[in-house]
Amino acid sequence: MKLESLISEIHKKKSFLCIGLDVDLNKIPAHLLDTDDPIFQFNKAIINATHHLAVAYKPNIAFYEAYGLKGWKSLEKTIGYLNEHHPEIFTIADAKRGDIGNTSAMYANAFLKEMNFDSITVAPYMGKDSVEPFLAVEGKHTILLGLTSNEGAFDFQTKKIGDSELYKEVLLTSRGWKHSDRLMYVVGATKAEYLADIRKIIPESFLLIPGVGAQGGSLSEVCKYGMTENIGLLVNSSRGILYASKGKDFADAAAEAATVLQLEMKKLMQKK
Amino acid sequence: MKLESLISEIHKKKSFLCIGLDVDLNKIPAHLLDTDDPIFQFNKAIINATHHLAVAYKPNIAFYEAYGLKGWKSLEKTIGYLNEHHPEIFTIADAKRGDIGNTSAMYANAFLKEMNFDSITVAPYMGKDSVEPFLAVEGKHTILLGLTSNEGAFDFQTKKIGDSELYKEVLLTSRGWKHSDRLMYVVGATKAEYLADIRKIIPESFLLIPGVGAQGGSLSEVCKYGMTENIGLLVNSSRGILYASKGKDFADAAAEAATVLQLEMKKLMQKK
Asked: Which residues belong to any copy of the Orotidine 5'-phosphate decarboxylase domain (chains A, B) (predicted)?
């Protein structure tokens, strides 16, 4: 998907909501467990109920690999369903991959070509030649981990490198990589105050913001420091939407929870 | 597998060879492509021909994910075959995963429990709480990326942090994590001279050394700087063994290539 299509979708829906499809069989309504593919049935119901409110869906691949072969089948069916019924919605394989060049190329092939995700999250530790194979895929986007939302972010990401910090070095260095116009970045919302600094280094890039909701973080703070002319934000919510109800009304409850966020986003977009 | 079992296997076989099961369908003998599961058939033949020479096998997960559902089936069959027929051999899921805590726990579950690998490679960028869920699994090992063998290693890993460098900070910091006795480290053999420094920080830990062979790097240099009383090394070779021949004799050729390495290792162990 081209960036312009994502931006136009954001304006059309007045939303920059990304819904994390992180399905945990221990948390979904009991009646779905009797179906042939509970994970896919759950996702399909969530997508059907929220696709007018969200501009992106983000399955975290761990939640599918945890169920082995069955999980992969659910993942393939989920991305297949999105590509068939909602090609206008941006899809993110939250995989956090990264390996030596030819190996990264195989991951890029699996997620961006075979499964046809619009984007994939990638870890930066192994540097340029581990990321460029993802960037090489035309019409796709690579979402590089910048500053994550977990406690461990302070172990290495915020370590001083000269006058800078590691995560800033990652942002800065990655701008020089081939096809860097296809880069987006993961930035944790628990550190909204960092966003002003980040915008100095990558003023235009789209940021994927996890950690609004269950992981903490305020939407208005994120917008204050991170929003650009093109909005430039995808704010993710997973558990707060997926598990708004554990009953048979789970999809309606998810839509309600998503609506609350979308309406807040609409207001914040109008302020801009 | 307990560390003592690995060490005793190393002494018994006079080998610290790890064989990377990175199967590329474009490179395996043509006659296997007609079988029901070419990847598994190839792996099985390689394992049958080399299990007396190798102390570890390491499938790189990208090579399996690249083939989607079929690839996962091949991976499950391969690790199943190893666990059934060669439980004495150390198995490594080369996955380079790493995510926020509960998500890392799902990866740990998939690879270390469900598939029952002895270990998994993990990326350090997200810090302590992204790695500890792997370390929490009893009887298993977490192999943390330290200094990788690719060019991109110089983008961030060798960046100066005060008087130290990022990869050294990773080694040092990780020693303080819970169950750090279950840690091993990936260290690229293309930089054998770094090993002396690395051994000052982690004198006893096992190192997984990729990059002998196709990626360059000398075995004797690695041993000179990296070998400990308990050997403390797993040296990986993939392509040089797997694709020693493209004909029907591929398994014999693989055994020959592995024997050359094993004999060199035997000599280097005797020197110690």
From this structure: 16-254
Which structural domain, as residue segments, surrounds residue A183? Answer: 3-271
Beta bridge partners of B161: B164
pLDDT at B85 over 70: yes
Nearest-neighbour CA in chain A from B68: distance (Å): 7
Q: Which of B228, B264, B187 is nearest to B15 (CA)?
A: B264
CA atoms within 13 A on the CB side of B179: 16
Per-position DSSP letters for B200-213, written without gaps between them: HHSSS--EEE--SS
Cα dihedral across residues B209, B212, B218, B220: positive or negative: positive
> How high is the mean pLDDT of chain B?
95
Q: What is the band of B188 on the pLDDT scale with cuts at 50, 70, 90?
A: confident
| A65: closest CA of chain B, how far (Å) | 6
Domain count, chain B: 1
Q: Are strands B160-161 and B164-165 parallel, antiparallel or unpaired?
A: antiparallel
Express each pLDDT in A17-66 by its tens digit: 999 999 999 999 999 999 999 999 999 999 999 999 999 999 999 999 99
- Chain segment A133-184, per-residue pLDDT in tens: 999 999 999 999 999 989 999 999 999 999 999 999 999 999 999 999 999 9
CB-CB neighbours of B1 under 10 Å: 18
Cβ contact A1:A139 at 8 Å: yes
Report phi then psi at A236, rounded to 5. Answer: -95, 140
Other beta carbons less than 10 A from residue B198's beta carbon:
21
Tokens 């080998």 correspond to what residue? Answer: B15
Using an 8 Å CB-CB cutoff, list chain A residues near B127. 150-157
How many Å apart are CA B196 and CA B176, to the nearest integer? 21
User: How many CB atoms neighbour CB A23 within 10 A?
Assistant: 28
* Residues of B in Cβ contact (< 8 Å) with A130: 150, 152
Looking at chain B, which residue has its C-alpha nearest residue A159? Answer: B161
Contacts of A131 in chain B (CB under 8 A): 152
- Quick: pLDDT tens for A72-97: 999 999 999 999 999 999 999 999 99
Instruction: Confirm whether B96 is a catalytic residue.
Output: yes
ipTM field: 0.95
Best A22, A67, A92, A100 residue to mutate vs chain B (most B CBs within 10 Å): A100
Chain B CB contacts of A107 below 8 Å = 62, 65-66
A&B contacts, CB < 8 Å: 173
- The residues of A annotated with a catalytic role in the active site are 96
